[in-house]
Amino acid sequence: MAYDPEQPVFEQEIQMLTKPILTIDEKPKSVFETLYYALQLTLVDFSPFIWATAFVAMAGLPESITPSMISYCFIGVFVATMIQTTLGNRLPVVQLPSVPIFMNMASIAKTYPFGLTTAWGAAFAGGIIEGLIGTSRVLTVLRKFMPPVVVGSVVATIGFVITRISLSWIFAKTEPLYLILGIVSFLFALFLRFKLRGLISRGFVLISILVVGVLGGTVLGIFDWDSVARAPWISLPKLFPFKGYDGASSPFIFSFSAILLVLTGYACSIFESIGDYAAICTAAAEPYKVKHMNRGIAAEGFSCALCSLFGGLPVTSASQNAGIIASTGVASRIVTQTAAFIFLLYGLSPKLTTILAAIPKSVVGGAFIISAGLILLSGINTVMSDVKDNFGNMIVAGVTLGISVMMPYYLSLDRSAWLGTLRPFTKLYLTSNVFLAVTIGIVCNLLINYVFYNKNN
User: Fold this and answer.
1) What are the backbone angles phi and psi of residue 408, rounded to the nearest 5°?
2) How confident is the model over 88-106, as pLDDT tens digits?
3) Helix (H, G, I), strand (E, B), or coil: what is residue 96?
């Protein structure tokens, strides 16, 4: 059978609870409106600051590297997002640092001889391999095993993940003042979204963050303007910034074992991205096609290889991006590309990055939890449309959602010591909600609907 890039991943389209006001190919009416929506997107997708800082700490590197690492990561976000939205699957996908990949890179940097150089060599090789997987079209076979009940379960799981992210931001600091700011941000966002109209309603996340986070934080004396004042305006990137840092004479060292370790993170990232593409298509009212999987993974992989050339962490699709599209109704690709250029400004200007980092995370989480709920309910709505009069699909959805949501939570609480004894890939798999949802959903659907259960009986 000939390859058809326009073929849907599944026969029945997932219906979003709300329709977008701007579809993927539509543009906002003005430059101001475009910048307005794009800035809002960057305030939700600010994890490069967090993950770059985490990588430096996990890899045992000196804190003096942190500002440069943050800049490199933001530049990588710009490069990868532009490649994805222009040459890749052309969905409004923001590419952010991949946690499973950089965690393995940090382990390599900390334990291998010439660790940092070896980690970036493994990241480069892994990115090339992921890109080749996408271009090989081997992922096309997955469409046969992803009916709406499976994809709906994955989308719902992503909703749970986004909710967890929002709550982790709200409770990043447990002092009463920060928790109150999170609640105020949530209530103010609700007011803006449902009581007002037009640009103010669609920009409820941005306005809530700026008013409660920046203005409110300044009045309360918790917004760190001193750090902003100390930060330089411009910092230019360079090729192979870590060359010679650990004593190696070459920019990359390729170790077979290190590459295998990093590939486990790339495998997790691939399955997460496949689920994220489904969620973004759902929020954007766009049919999910096989070209989105293949071109998306190809663009993502080669982008990771490019990021490694200038010190940026490898990237993956941002789950929270689907949430902001669902809640604002803005799915325009030009908005995502404009956001990519704002990320570039963050990367080139440490002062802008410092302003972003100074916003209390509880404020961002409070405003964003609304978006998380919409994605969660959209996935559940799709599941319900596919379980009617089909007991087998009920079991598929129940098992998939139950395990993918609760297993990482259970292991982190009651089996954290045991989890630390596992091999890296096994640990990544058991703690990745989306990876679990995709694989368990596919396997359960095959076993229940094709082996054990016949809905005609």
Assistant:
1) -60, -40
2) 999 999 898 887 787 778 7
3) strand
